[in-house]
Specification:
Layout: H1 37-89, H2 102-111, E1 119-126, E2 133-136, H3 151-159, E3 164-169, E4 172-181, E5 189-196, H4 199-247, H5 264-310, H6 315-344, E6 354-357, H7 358-369, E7 376-381, E8 386-389, H8 391-407, E9 414-422, E10 425-432, H9 466-476, E11 480-485, E12 491-498
Parallel strand pairs: 7-9
Antiparallel strand pairs: 1-2, 1-5, 3-4, 4-5, 6-8, 9-10, 10-12, 11-12
Helix pairs in contact: 1-4, 4-5, 5-6, 7-8, 8-9
Amino acid sequence: MTTTEAKEPAGTTTDPTTPAEPAAGTTADGGRVRISARVRILLWLLLVMTVAFGSVATTVRSILLRDTDQRIGSLLAQEAVEFTQFEERGVDPATGRPFTDASRLLRVFLERQYADPDEELMGLVGRAGRDPAQLIQPRELPAGRALHEDPDARRRIFASPAATGTLDRPHGTVRWAKVAIAPHGGTAQAAFVVAFHPQRERQRADEVFRILLAISGVALLMTTGIGWVVAGRILQPVRLVRAAAAQLTEQDLTRRIPVHGRDDIAALAETFNAMLDRLERAFAAQREFVDDAGHELRTPITIVRGHLELMGDDPAERDETVRLVTDELDRMSRIVEDLLLLAKAERPDFVTPEPVQLAELTADVYVKARALGDRDWRLAEVADAEVRLDPQRITQAMVQLAQNAVQHTGPGQRISIGSRVDGHLVELYVADSGSGVRPQDTDVIFERFRRGTARRGTRGSGAGLGLSIVRAIAEAHGGRVRLHHTEGGGATFVLTLEEARP
């Protein structure tokens, strides 16, 4: 049997272990290339500075060229005025009388003038249609640029009806002004011409432009270095935030960012540190909550398993085991329901406020609480006001406080329920006449699965979640729950809520 193999093109090899080169603008993992904030800031700075320097250099060049054109125009006008005045008032030095010959007039005037650099003064004498004869003042100009060496340019200027103009030539532009001389005793024509070659002046403006560009280039290089350093210093806290965020784990939330100064970057670092503090507390509370929940649920599970393993065939023993197991399962069910309620307290729809008559709500709580135990129940005071709150959640919290009071008081002891409005605050309270709460337990009893170091009465069957639920309901309303001693002995729990009118 013969087999054939596909051949690859010459000069190519295939290595399945070699990764392909990433496309332009992408990283090796296929994502787009990231440009750091430092580089983006520097690029924007360079763009703005380049536009600014270029605009300044271009504006300066335009101003210089405009000033050059204005100066040239003034120079041409001045020369023309001087010739006109000489023509009107001058006299021939040979005769002492006004000039009668145009050539003589031009020759005498030119002999008395001194042209500026790049300026030509000449007199043109001739007839129409012919190359005019010229009287010139000798000037040292680059070869080919002198107007008196360009017959075509002379004819065009001499024949032009305009007094001023610009002549474009292969050797450069010429600005000129002309004063025509009236013929004297014949058909001959004459004119005084002043011409200026602006190339050197414009080259100076271009030289200044190039110098400004060079200075701008050096300034850009310096700006690049300084901007790189400054951007690095400004963004250093941001890099620290990124590094800290990358190193954060659920097990280590202790890293913090050093804060220096009082600018926006320092405020960012402070905000990030505050966020880390909240995360650390949240994770710590979560771990504690899970540990406590596991501990609380482990006890009834162990009891149920133990009784089931030891259960015999005696009917009375089986009934007793079923009763104990059912009781423990009920307790587990209550714990799970409380845990679900506390988890739901983190959601925004945990409470649904609505307009409620506070007096009616207080009376309903009083009626429901009286069924909790044989106590001396009293409706202490009732506030007559309409407020916005969730009546079901507030009732749940108040009944929980009443249940807590029943558990820590004996038969016949007084329990008072009431409500009042204090300024902008709404207060609902449950006060008992039990043994009170020890100072070291004041904050502990509101934590999950914590009952305090000392009990005030008969130990209840709860898991220590009741007061945590009360606190969650109060905080969901934007309020809090407070504890203080009842006058004459006992404890008073107060729900303090911000008054919200409907």
